[in-house]
Amino acid sequence: MLQKMATVVGGSCKRKEILQMNQYELIVERIASGEIPTGKGLNQETTFKRPGDTRWGSHFGTVTSVISLFSPITSLMKIIEDDPKNDAARTDAGCILYAMEDFEFVFLLHLMKLILGISYELSQALQRKDQDILNAIGLVKVVKSRLQEVRDNGFDELLQETNLFANKYDIDIPNMNDVYCPKGRSRRRLESFTFFHYFKVELFNTVIDTQIQELNDRFDNVNTKLLECLSCLDPRGSFANFNKEKLIEFARFYPLEFDELADIPFLSSSLGNFIVDVRADSDFGNLQTISDLALKMVEKRKDIVYPLVYLLIKLALVLPVATASVERVFSAMTFVKDKLRNRMSDDWFNSCMVTYVERDIFATIDDEEIMQYFQGMKNRRMLL
């Protein structure tokens, strides 16, 4: 419903202007009634934030903007619903307005604000290219703990907040002791439970349990241990997180690459020599990522001196840690493989994807150099 709302609101510049005007009138009215204070930096204009497909942190901004702009958005939907010129927009606006006037929509809006607010820092940490794996794992544990705490003790506070919001905007609040019946459904052949049971068990507990289970599935004990070991290769702070025992444990996750009898003892000695060597070399002092470490090792020919350590670094690089980068590549496919390029070969498609995803790198290459390269590949009828 929020996605549909974003489409309707952003459908034209005129609707955005109406939303801004409604917001301005609301702020003036609240200032006149003394509901909100005035001062420098207060009461700034806000916009409806469209949620991003792969930026999960953006959904928190969408939910909070809907809550803060609830009255202006409602007024805008009424205007669109009364406009006879656009039947499709009128239908969507009517569906949105019907949903916004329902207590269940308001409850879910505040529930998602609560959950997305708890996981916001984790979402931001996992989206960064220079991921701090150790802090990300710590945030996973924090989010799990917070969600469990909210599940145990947070329902009454959430319900109270939702009731205050509903009273503010004249939304009917159901009696929690009445028997729940979905709108448009007959009371016959339905399980008999109250509104309180529906909102707490069917919605609140179910949604939070799903979030906790998802985190447990994606960050189980093995994965968490693997990432903690991986963080020991982080070169920042002069290899401040380096831990030889954890790196040996990391190598044991790959028995086909590191033999317990033949390779692990040599790896232990190599890691001890490696850390002393790189900490004494100033060229390794300003590295930020594991990929920078791999490049610097090849440049300084340390990959030949410490082959087992370099193999460990390569295994760390191929781990699917940067899932955000992978999601962005899949999002880029919608731009590269359109209807006009639907039958391109795999090689051509791969080349287009590389140039699109790494466009910052390709922007530094001179066009003349590219044309000279293609000119030298084979004879052509004219100079490029």
TrEMBL record:
**Keyword DNA repair tagged:** no
Q: Which positions fall inside the HAT C-terminal dimerisation domain?
A: 302-360
Arranged from A to Z, the UniProt key words for this protein are: Membrane, Transmembrane, Transmembrane helix
Q: Name the source's superkingdom.
A: Eukaryota
Q: Name one GO molecular function term.
A: protein dimerization activity
Q: Does ATP-binding appear among the keywords?
A: no
This chain's protein is named HAT C-terminal dimerisation domain-containing protein
Q: Which residues cross the membrane?
A: 304-326
